[in-house]
Structures are given as C-alpha cells and as structure tokens.
Amino acid sequence: MTILLDKNVITEIARGNAAVSEALKRMLASGEQVYMSRAAYNELVRDSPVHLRMGYEKLLQDLKIAMAPASAMPGSLKDRGDFYADNITYDPKPGELGRVKEYGGGKSKETPGDAFVAAEAKALKARLWTLDGPFGKRAENLGVTLATESKTLKATSGTEDIAQARRLMGLKPFSFMQNNPPKPTPGKGGAPGSGGGGSGGGSKTGTATTTADVGKPIEPVVEHGPNMRGDAKFQGATLAFQGANFILQKINGSIQAKRFEDEWKSRWLPEVTRRLAADPQLGALVLISYAKAKGDAESAIDTVTVFQSIQVGYGINVDEALRDAQSQVRMAPGRSDVGDRIWLKPKAPMDIKRLRLPFGTTIAGLATFVPGKEKLVRIRFSGRLGFDDKMFSKEVLSVPAGMKPRFYYLWPPEKVSYFQFGSWQTKDVDWEISNEAEIGYGDVDPFQQGVPVVKLDSWINPYNSTAAMVWPADNSTANLFQTADATQDSIGLLAGQGIGPMRWVRPEFIRILKAPYDS
Predict the structure, then answer these.
(1) What is the chain's pLDDT, residue by residue, as a tens digit (519 residues)?
(2) 7: part of which helix (H) or strand (E)?
(3) What one-character-per-residue DSSP string does 251-263 give?
(4) Which of 123, 204, 247, 348 has its CA 20 to 30 A from that of 289?
(5) With contact defined as beta carbons under 8 Å apart, do 285 and 256 qualify?
(6) How many Cβ atoms sit within 10 Å of the Cβ of residue 385?
(7) Using an 8 Å Cβ cutoff, are 368 and 511 in contact?
(8) How far apart are alpha carbons 149 and 8 in whole angstroms?
(9) What is the spatial distance between Cα 369 and Cα 376, in angstroms, rounded to a whole number?
(10) E strands along 327-413, which residues?
(11) Three-state SS string across 69-115, please?
C-alpha cells in the first residue's frame, strides 16, 4: 500500500529521532511506495531556512522519496474534493477534536496546511504517516487511514541537522561533514591539494581514503593561565597540578584556603588528571567562584572573600573549555563571582578538525582565496549594533610559498546570543547570498551558486559592506589565520561561543572549490 509522509517525519529524523529513522528505513526496504505529500514537500524544501532547504531536497533525492503525483488513481479528484467538503461541514461533538486546519504558516498565513496533506492521502488511498498526534486524529475522524507509525512513534524536540539525518538513514555524508583531513597533493611538500574535495582533496584512486594531515599542528598565539609569581602576602591558596603551583590571589585566609584545597584535591584533581592523560590534546579550564560581603563603606577593614565552588570545563582550547563549562551550568561570561580562571594546557597541539563551529553556523562550502587577493576583513562585535567592519578593515595575509589556504565558508546563524547588562540578549544576523565569488574553478553547488555573507554596516557606519564567515579547513590555514586579528569582542560578549578561529572574507576574494554535496 502507498505511504504518504508528512513533513514532520523528515524533520524528526534531522532532530536525531532514531526510532523514526529505523521505521522509515524498514518502510523503504519493504518495497512499499513512499511519497512525500506535495504540501509537506513544499513546506520542507521551499519554506525551511536556506541552508536546511537544500539539504532536505538532497536527502529526499538520495532516499528516492518523490513528491506525490498530482492524480494517481481514478476518482482521486473527487475523493480530494469530498474530503474538503466533509472537513468544512464537520460538526464535532463537545470534547471532540475539530476540523483539520486548511491554511497557516508564513507571514501571509496562506500556506496550504494539514487539510491538503490529509486530502492527498485520501485521494491516493494511502496510509498517512504524521507525528502530529492531534492532526492524525482529526484526519482519521474524516476517513483518512493512518499508518501504524502515526500511533506508535512520538515526536521529539531539538535542532534540525542534515548531517545527522543522513547518518541515521545510512546515507553517505556530505563531503565536508566527514571531518577528515584532505590529502596532500604529490610534489607540493605537504601543502593542501588544489582539488575540490573537502575530505580527500587529492586524486581519487580505489576507495576514498585519506592520508596524513595537512600542515603542522596549530600553534598557540597567547599563553593562557595565571602568573605563577605572586605577592607572598596574598598566597593563601594554591592549585597544584603536575608540579605547577597556580597562586590564587583572591584567597588570603587559611580557612578559605583549606576549604578550596580540600575540594580541589578530593573532588576534582583525580578526574582532571585522568581526562588530560587520556587525551593529550585536551585542556581543562578551572573556574573558581567566590562571594564577598559588601561591608561598611566607612570602615577601613575589608570584608572576607569566601570560596564558593569549582567548575571545570574541558576542551582543546580555552574557548571550547568555557563552552563545555557553560553547557554544564548556565554561567554568564564576566559574572563577578567567577574570580579565578586557570587554564591547564594540553600536552599536545590542537587539531582544527576537532573544534566545533561557532554559535549555530554550518558549512556551506569549501573555498580558497582568489590568487593575489589573500585578504581578511577586520570585524568587531558590539552587542546591539551587531557585526561591523572596522575602519581600514582589509588585512593582507602573508601566505608561505607552496601553500594553498583552504577554508569553509559558513551559513550564518539567524541570531547570536550574548551576555550584557546582567542578562542574555539576542541580536538578529542580517545576511544575504552574494554572487560575487569566483565559481569557475570548482564543483559549484547545483542548488545555490552564491556565498552567504553578513551585512556588516550598522546605522552608525551606513555603507553596504558584506563579508563571509570562514573557518580554516586544515591546520596550515588555521595557523595562517592566527597571524591576523580575530573578531574583536573587547568585553567578551561572545565568550565561550567558539569564534576564535573564525575569520571574515569579502565574497569577491573567494574562489569556490567545492559545494557541500558529493557528486
């Protein structure tokens, strides 16, 4: 029998619903005809955010799930019309569910709604699979046959992720989401290859495998952690780790020092030691909180600083570790009670492939610079003013001989969150698609040939400047990017959101190498 899918079946898989993905795989393997409702298909592919829209279209193509035919059976038009008429005249009894919604969604409120999906199922004499429980019951009341999965499986919540959907459905991942190092091109001394692949930039022979990493390990720019020299009269407590004593300047009493050292040694030290020994690229950020009474303004005697707690976050750099700590406890950057931050450095240099992308961005494509235009844009983030380019913002990179920088250009987030004035704020990110990038040298996305760019200028700086958010694709490029300024965030509004390696490039300086879809 024919199965007709509602939009939420696919979005649930993108949210990581393994039960739904397994059920759909069984259904597809059974030989049953599985269609996507036309109204649901349009909503999924046409009305989703652009970076999801193209991913969903490719997902359905690879699963061989087509949009339902306009009329597949004799009498289908009459069945469809009968459903609309029955829905209009349906008079539910008290306590019963009402009619199926005909329109909704979007600013115009004229997007075809659930009634179109249900009418299509009835016209096709198909079983309807929806994870919207109330809609399923309303449709069943009007004679639509529901798939068993509509009654046995439940919807979840979460962020939609195309890579996750492909993984759950057993599909080959997008080339840039495999997170593998590109092959060096023979004869280039280990420099990134000139080919188009995000994971295997060299020539392909036999199975698609990857070889050694491209570029040397990422080198630190700034040494983090406290100054281990301290004024002796304030050395009331120390954090001892692997032979180093980190002085805590804010504890100057023996009672508070003992409280701190007891908690560190008994609760935290064994686990921190174990985690860092198991992964040489991992570091630990130790956040130590204090409380202090206001005291008497007319008194010369200072109040006592009281040790409160320890929180530890793990990551391959400070920002990643802070993000980990914030995920455990909702901590506000710059809170006054976080008095000491101690970075226990990794034993080994980091690998850029292990870092997560910042604040909700996703990969849009792989690129390099147009030769002779190896330039970045200096950007600052100013809270309510958003991202803005700085005066004289172009910064020329000095690219080593024989190296070809490779970076991902990113889909920007819809919003960014930042902590200011004692609470979390959100700022919309105004972005558009630019067609100024050079596309003649790579495998360009068949769905969208442009590059997403952020509109940079605020009302204070009213011009028409744009730039793409970019992320290094290999360690050599990460090291090159570190020679230029990161996004300026003077008061730490975006602390812990992973923007450290991200840089900005004008679209006309970008040469696209490969779209994020495998050919």
Answers:
(1) 799 999 999 999 999 999 999 999 999 999 889 999 888 888 888 777 766 777 888 899 889 998 888 655 444 555 665 665 655 566 666 655 655 555 555 444 455 567 778 778 778 888 999 998 888 787 787 778 899 999 999 998 888 888 889 889 998 776 544 333 333 333 333 332 333 333 333 333 333 332 233 345 555 443 334 333 333 344 467 788 887 778 776 776 778 888 888 999 999 999 999 999 999 889 999 998 887 655 554 544 555 678 888 999 998 888 888 888 877 764 444 344 657 888 998 988 888 888 888 887 888 889 999 999 999 999 999 888 889 887 667 889 999 998 999 999 998 988 898 888 878 899 989 888 898 999 888 777 655 678 999 998 655 555 678 999 999 998 899 999 989 989 998 888 888 788 889 999 999 999 998 866 543
(2) helix 7-14
(3) --SHHHHHHHHHH
(4) 348
(5) no
(6) 14
(7) yes
(8) 12
(9) 10
(10) 338-344, 362-369, 375-381, 387-396, 407-411
(11) CCCCCCCHHHHHHHHHHHHHHCCCCCCCCCCCCCECCCCCCCCECHH
Nearest alpha carbon to residue 356 among 210, 162, 152, 497: 497
Which residue, chain included where needed, has tokens 């009302």? Answer: 459
Q: Which residues contact 56 (CB under 8 A, 6 or more apart)?
A: 10, 14, 44, 45, 48, 162
**Unique residue bearing structure tokens 């720019």:** 221
**CA dist., res. 86 & res. 444, Å (int):** 48
Pick from 188, 505, 160: nearest CA to 365:
505
User: Shortest CA distance to 290 belongs to which of 340, 228, 343, 332?
Assistant: 340
> How many CA atoms does the CB half-sphere of 70 hold within 13 Å?
0
Torsion, Cα of 354, 360, 366, 367 (10° steps): -110
Q: What angle do CA 412, 414, 417 make, to 5 degrees?
A: 100
Token representation of residue 270: 């064994």
CA distances from 464 to 142, 384, 406, 454 (A): 54, 18, 27, 10
CA dist 140 and 86 (Å) reads: 12
DSSP 347: S
Assess contact for 366 and 513: CB atoms under 8 A. Answer: yes
Q: Show the tokens assigned to 340.
A: 């000491």
Q: End-to-end distance of the chain based on CA atoms, in angstroms?
A: 33
